[in-house]
Every structure is written in C-alpha cells, then in structure tokens.
C-alpha cells in the first residue's frame, strides 16, 4: 500500500474537470434526444451504423466496432441483434478467421444513416461548432487527441486508422 499523498486537483483543475465531466454527460444525452426524436435511433445505434458506413465494404469485425463504439462486445452484440431485426446490418463469420464475426451494414442500414445524418450533423453543429471560434476548433481537436492518446491506442476504427 502506497503512503504517497494523492495529487489532489487545485481549484482551476477542479473547475476544468467539473466542466468536462458535465459536458461528457450532457452532450451525448442531447445527441441521443435529437436522434431519438428525428430518426428513431439512439446515439449508440447511430454510432454503430455510421461507424460501419465509413469503412471499406461497410464491414468491420465486431471487436473493432466495439472499440470504435467504446462498448463491450456483449452490448454491441445486443445492439447488433436489434439492428439485424430492422434489416440495417447483418453478422457473418469472418472468412479470414472464423473465430471472428463481421458486422456488415446493409443497403437499408446505409439509407437509415443517410436519412439520419443531416439532422445529426445540424445538432452537432448547433451544440459544438456554432458556440466556438475557428481557433477553438483547433484547440478542441488538439486537446481531444492528446486526451485520447493518454487513454491509449484505438486502432482500425474509422476515425483512427491503423498506423
């Protein structure tokens, strides 16, 4: 057991942390509300479908898609089953390695993403980009990348291609 004193947050650090944690809770909830209202999708379902839409062949291994969506394979599997029931994706064994399962976005799923995207992008613009200056976009991108790098690698995902 370590006897080192914790590095407690100072007042400015604490204010920054509380602002960030509030954003981390409220922003996804706001996106979820818009997508549920306008497209009948949760933000998580949209993230899964749009993640597939950005890949070659609209196909990813479930394990890679789970990493992209920041979820467990179990949660993704339940969601994939629901999306399969709607005809928006299907799962198939990976022909390169049958131990893995591929998620494949169907034409109907692509149409759903394309129909939902304009409203989603408008909400992202309203909530994230409209309140910021161009200089702040760059700062936010840089900060986000540094924090993501500190969390660890995210490989093979649409927003983080393998090095």
Please characterize this protein's 3D structure.
With 163 residues, the chain is mainly alpha-helical. Helix content is 62%, strand content 8%. It has helices at residues 11-39, 43-53, 62-68, 73-85, 107-129, 134-151, and strands at 59-61, 89-93, 101-105. A three-stranded antiparallel beta sheet has the order 1-3-2. Helix 2 crosses helix 5 and helix 3 (62-68) packs across helix 4. The chain is globular. The mean pLDDT is 92.
By DSSP, the count of extended strands is 3
Low-confidence stretches: none
Helix fraction? Answer: 55-70%
What's the mean pLDDT score? 92
Tell me the structural class: mainly alpha
**What best-fitting shape do the alpha-carbon axes yield?**
globular
Beta-strand content estimate: 5-15%
**Main sheet makeup:** 3 strands, antiparallel
Our count of helices gives 6
Question: What is the H-and-E element order?
Answer: HHEHHEEHH
Strand order of the largest sheet: 1-3-2
**What is the terminal separation in angstroms?**
38 Å
Cα-based radius of gyration, to the nearest Å? 18 Å
Task: List the main descriptive attributes of the protein structure presented here.
three-stranded antiparallel beta sheet, WH_DNA-bd_sf, WH-like_DNA-bd_sf, MarR family winged helix-turn-helix transcriptional regulator, MarR/SlyA-like, globular, mainly alpha, single chain
Summarize the structure.
By secondary structure, the chain is mainly α. It has helices at residues 11-39, 43-53, 62-68, 73-85, 107-129, 134-151, and strands at residues 59-61, 89-93, 101-105.
